[in-house]
Design brief:
Layout (H helix, E strand, L loop, with lengths): L15 H6 L3 E6 L5 H6 L9 E10 L7 E15 L6 E15 L2 H8 L5 E4 L6 H12 L20 H9 L3 H8 L6
Parallel strand pairs: 4-5
Antiparallel strand pairs: 1-2, 2-3, 3-4
The protein binds zinc ion.
């Protein structure tokens, strides 16, 4: 984690309401390997940069209603995935810029879910912000990762010469079939 991380706001046990009330900010970064689920989604073979995130709390004052607790989250990541076009590794940038409104409990979240435009989460004094970071990156991952431009295919000379020779020496199966072909006599 970033050494600048404020110890007043432990990201794994965040008091969300206090964070919003103080309009506090928090940021950190960790190498990809430190995020279990992101590592599982990733392919070995490409060096990935650290996952960087930042969060801001906000208390939105409402007329005649309780103040709303908001959290704004940005994440910058790049995940090594497998290109679905050429099947070689591709480093895919993943950007998250999301806002969440925190409500009192699960029942309120369920009740409001249909009408609310925003993402709703349940208030906690020990909210795991890092888990949310990971969730959001996974949600933002492309379903079908591809290179913008796939690397050029390997030149034929890179193919195992032994293998290529066998290919050319192998008799054409259709040639054998042709020998068996029965031509109708007229
Ligand atoms: Zn590709």
């Amino acid at each position: 984690m970033d050494s600048q991380t404020d110890t007043q706001w432990p990201p794994e046990q965040l008091d969300v309401k206090a964070f919003a009330r103080d309009a506090a900010q928090l940021q950190g970064q960790a190498p990809l390997q430190a995020w279990t689920r992101l590592s599982e989604e990733s392919q070995p073979g490409l060096q990935a940069p650290a996952v960087r995130w930042s969060a801001q709390g906000e208390l939105q004052v409402q007329d005649g209603a309780p103040d709303q607790v908001w959290l704004h989250l940005q994440v910058h990541a790049a995940l090594p995935l497998t290109c679905q076009r050429c099947l070689s590794p591709v480093l895919v940038p993943v950007e998250v810029d999301s806002s969440f409104r925190f409500v009192a409990d699960e029942a309120t979240a369920m009740a409001l879910d249909d009408e609310a435009q925003e993402d709703l989460l349940v208030l906690s004094r020990e909210f795991n912000l890092l888990e949310l970071v990971e969730d959001e990156v996974i949600l933002a991952m492309p379903l079908v990762p591809v290179h913008d431009e796939c690397p050029a295919p390997l030149p034929m000379s890179a193919v195992d010469p032994q293998f290529e020779q066998e290919l050319t020496e192998r008799p054409n199966p259709f040639a054998a079939l042709a020998g068996l072909k029965i031509t109708p006599s007229s």
